[in-house]
């Protein structure tokens, strides 16, 4: 998670590491802060959302501190390599970005609320980097689990772009793509809830200082009603 001088570039599917059919490690059963299962199956009525906003250590903490979030786990998403390791992902040869899967109760916190937290917690204009962290694994992304999520994500991006433009900041580079076909691969156990285990550990998460209007008071927020999508198991 440190600055390098190599120009990041996503691999093609042919260039990507092949990976393996089964993981090389096991994932802890429960969240160290929330106490709930990490990988499901999850209780009926919960929903899932996937966010990538830089180093997943600090990003995960942002979400587990949010009321209504039932569990979180970190992993690798958006690339080609099956069951990747952290070192492989950091090589830039898997195509994955560091992501956080958030399982939440929509009766307490909406997807739109989580989108607001996402945008304000990092700088989405930096391409293959986040602050001093450089690499394709640090790119900003939203992987959506339904057409309604996709609509809300796109609407929130447009709304936040207006805020950033008004503040004299750059163009959002966040990719918004369906989660279907982009498997979320859980990261190694030591990465899960890392900043709970290491309170003084590295956290590269930091926003632009530009805030997005409250979802309940805006058109983009109303594009995201409750009842988006049931939470899948981790292998989806």
Automatic annotation (TrEMBL):
InterPro entries: Met_Sox_Rdtase_MsrA_dom (IPR002569), Met_Sox_Rdtase_MsrA_sf (IPR036509), MsrA_MetSO_reductase (IPR050162). GO terms for molecular function: peptide-methionine (S)-S-oxide reductase activity. Residues 1-23, 214-236 are annotated as: Disordered. It catalyses: [thioredoxin]-disulfide + L-methionine + H2O = L-methionine (S)-S-oxide + [thioredoxin]-dithiol; L-methionyl-[protein] + [thioredoxin]-disulfide + H2O = L-methionyl-(S)-S-oxide-[protein] + [thioredoxin]-dithiol. The keyword Zinc does not apply. The keyword Flavoprotein does not apply. Its EC number is 1.8.4.11. Keywords: Oxidoreductase. It is an enzyme of class 1 (oxidoreductase). It comes from the Bacteria. Residues 50-203 form the Peptide methionine sulphoxide reductase MsrA domain. PANTHER family: MITOCHONDRIAL PEPTIDE METHIONINE SULFOXIDE REDUCTASE. Has an important function as a repair enzyme for proteins that have been inactivated by oxidation. Catalyzes the reversible oxidation-reduction of methionine sulfoxide in proteins to methionine. HAMAP family: MsrA (MF_01401). NCBIfam families: msrA. Belongs to the MsrA Met sulfoxide reductase family. This is Peptide methionine sulfoxide reductase MsrA. It comes from Streptomyces mutomycini. The gene is msrA.
């Amino acid at each position: 998670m440190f600055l390098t001088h190599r120009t990041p570039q996503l691999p093609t599917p042919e260039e990507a590491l092949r990976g393996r059919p089964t993981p090389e490690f096991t994932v802890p059963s429960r969240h160290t802060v929330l106490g709930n299962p990490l990988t499901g199956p999850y209780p009926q009525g919960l929903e899932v959302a996937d966010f990538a906003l830089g180093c997943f250590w600090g990003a995960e903490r942002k979400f587990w501190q949010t009321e209504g979030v039932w569990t979180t786990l970190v992993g690798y998403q958006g690339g080609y390599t099956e069951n990747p390791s952290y070192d492989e992902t950091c090589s830039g040869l898997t195509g994955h970005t560091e992501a956080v899967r958030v399982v939440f109760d929509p009766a307490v916190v909406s997807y739109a609320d989580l989108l607001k937290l996402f945008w304000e917690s990092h700088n989405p204009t930096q391409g293959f980097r986040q602050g001093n962290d450089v690499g394709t694994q640090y790119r900003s992304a939203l992987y959506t689990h339904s057409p309604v999520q996709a609509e809300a994500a796109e609407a929130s991006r447009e709304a936040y772009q207006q805020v950033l433009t008004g503040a004299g900041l750059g163009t959002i580079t966040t990719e918004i793509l369906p989660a279907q076909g982009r498997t979320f691969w859980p990261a190694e156990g030591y990465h899960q809830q890392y900043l709970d285990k290491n309170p003084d550990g590295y956290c590269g998460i930091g926003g632009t200082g530009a805030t997005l209007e409250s979802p309940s008071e805006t058109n983009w927020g109303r594009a995201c009603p409750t009842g988006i999508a049931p939470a899948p198991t981790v292998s989806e």
